[in-house]
Each structure stands twice: as structure tokens, then as C-alpha cells.
Design goal:
3-stranded antiparallel beta sheet, about 15% strand, 11 helices, about 250 residues, 7-stranded parallel beta sheet, about 35% helix, alpha/beta, binds adenosine-5-diphosphoribose
Length: about 250
């Protein structure tokens, strides 16, 4: 059942010290002005994902792919973390066992102060050498020239994000799976729960006995299974939830 008001069970779990897992998707960054992928006006409405987000697309036209990701880097650099990002960092700051597993590649969680986190789909701010496989951080808002080249071997660099038809980074996914098995409370925030294997984590937490709360203005394929669905924008629902549970917002990690 969808509601805007948290249950007393959820508030008790939030006030407790039990292990918490937070799973996030693009909806968390939408209030920072970054479009989601599948909503009206979303990224995949205007762009054919098969032309920008697969290894074959990169092989066929790396410059085209890089223009897409360079624009996304510039947009993410201009954006600011919103209250949803800050609330998630504040839950971590309570000192309970905690993991944030995000599908987002924009880096806004880190900028909001999150530390115990795994990037399931990589990061816009990491570049990978297509020959050596080495990765390095590059936070310049815009890259020049495109495609960028590896300083060590001169080969082309690619964005270190997970494209369709690619597998998730194993260590990060294993950490998230473990946190799902050990969580007492899991919050599923701003994701359509359509893209696997990331979308398997909320079910894994549920099966392991966690209380799993979905926060999303819309219902998703996971809503019926969720322990609770809080209907509304994350930047509104999460701060209200923390206030109701007596968790200060400003003590980010
Ligand atoms: N607060 C909470 N949820 C929101 C908000 C908001 N302010 N605005 C939108 N949403 C919800 C939408 O209702 C939708 O369910 O966020 C979800 C966004 O879904 P998608 O666009 O499918 O994004 P996501 O689930 O992160 O996509 C998963 O797919 O395209 C790939 O690699 C990409 O990581 C991405 C993955």
C-alpha cells in the first residue's frame, strides 16, 4: 500500500542501531536537475541508448559516445547534492552498520558526504584505458580533446561506467549483496527497479528478512513486494522521515 506517512515500525527501525542498506537510482538526483532515464523527458527518451551506452556503440563511434558522456559530466559538475542525498549521508552518520549502493554515476552522493558506498554502475569521474584496463579519476568538467587518451600508453580512454551488455564490478556488487543479506532495514530510493542485477538487491534484502521501504512518487514492479511504499519525491520524504525519527540532517559523515 502507498502512503506518505511512515509507519511506526519504520520509525522504530530508523531510531534503532540495526544494519541499514540504502539503494538509490536516478530519481535521487532528479531534484538536483539531472533527468532520470525512463521518466517523461528522461535521458533515454531523447537518446538511443544503443548508440551511446554499449561497448559496440563505443567501438563504432567513440567520439559520439564521448560527446554524450562529456555533456553528462558537465551537467553533473554544475549540479548540487539535494536534501535526499544529504538525508542519506545523515543516516550513515548515525554510526550504525551502513552501506549505500547506488546505480548513479554523477558523484552527488560523495559530494553530500556519503562514505560507506559502492558505485554499482561506475562513475562519470573515472576514466579507463581501453588497452591496459587501468582507471584514474578525472574531475575536469569538460575533457579536451575528445576522445581522451591514456597518459601511459596513448590508447583511447573510455568512461568507467557500466554499459548495457556489461557486468557490474564484482567487488562492489558482492559488498551490496552482503549488506542486503545482513540488513534490518533497507531503503529503495528513486529507482524504477527495472535494471538487473542491481534491482535484485531489494528482493534479496526482503528474502533475508529486512524491512524494505520503497521511496518513489510512482509505483514500480517492486512496489507490491515492498514492506512499505512511501509515495513522494525523495528530497521531501527523506528529510521528513529523519525529522520524525529524530535524526539530525546536518551531521553528514
Ligand atoms: N524522488 C524519488 N524518486 C523519483 C523522483 C524523486 N524526486 N523523481 C523520479 N523518481 C523515480 C521515478 O518514478 C522512477 O521510478 O525514479 C525512478 C527513475 O527510474 P529510471 O529512470 O529507470 O532510473 P534508474 O532506476 O536509476 O535506472 C537504472 O538504468 O539506464 C540505466 O544505468 C542506468 O543506472 C541506470 C539504470
Amino acid at each position: 500500500m502507498s502512503s506518505a506517512a511512515p509507519s511506526s515500525r519504520l520509525l522504530a527501525l530508523l531510531r534503532g542501531r540495526g544494519a541499514a542498506l540504502v539503494l538509490t537510482g536516478a530519481g535521487v538526483s532528479s531534484e538536483s536537475g539531472i533527468a532520470t532515464f525512463r521518466d517523461a523527458g528522461g535521458v533515454w527518451e531523447g537518446t538511443d541508448r544503443m548508440r551511446v551506452a554499449t561497448p559496440r556503440a563505443f567501438a563504432a563511434d567513440p567520439e559520439f559516445v564521448w560527446r554524450f558522456y562529456d555533456a553528462r559530466r558537465a551537467q553533473a559538475a554544475r549540479a548540487e547534492p539535494n536534501l535526499a542525498h544529504r538525508a542519506i549521508a545523515a543516516i550513515e552518520a548515525t554510526g550504525r552498520p551502513f552501506l549505500l549502493a547506488t546505480q548513479n554515476v554523477d558523484g552527488l552522493h560523495e559530494r553530500a558526504g556519503s562514505r560507506s558506498l559502492v558505485n554499482l554502475h561506475g562513475s562519470l569521474w573515472s576514466l579507463r584505458c581501453t588497452v591496459e584496463g587501468t582507471e584514474h579519476e578525472d574531475r575536469r568538467p569538460q575533457l579536451d580533446p575528445l576522445p581522451p587518451r591514456c597518459a601511459a600508453c596513448g590508447a583511447m580512454l573510455r568512461p568507467a561506467v557500466v554499459w548495457f551488455e556489461e557486468s557490474l564490478p564484482m567487488i562492489e556488487f558482492a559488498r551490496a549483496e552482503r549488506a542486503a543479506r545482513e540488513a534490518d532495514l533497507a531503503l529503495v530510493v528513486g529507482t524504477s527497479s527495472l535494471v538487473y542485477p542491481a534491482a535484485s538487491l531489494q528482493s534479496a534484502a526482503l528474502e533475508a528478512g529486512a524491512y524494505v521501504v520503497e521511496i518513489n512518487p510512482e509505483r514500480t514492479p517492486f512496489s507490491a513486494a515492498a514492506s512499505e511504499h512511501l509515495a513522494g519525491p525523495a528530497g521531501v520524504v527523506l528529510p521528513a522521515l529523519l525529522a520524525a525519527a529524530g535524526i539530525p540532517m546536518d551531521r553528514a559523515a
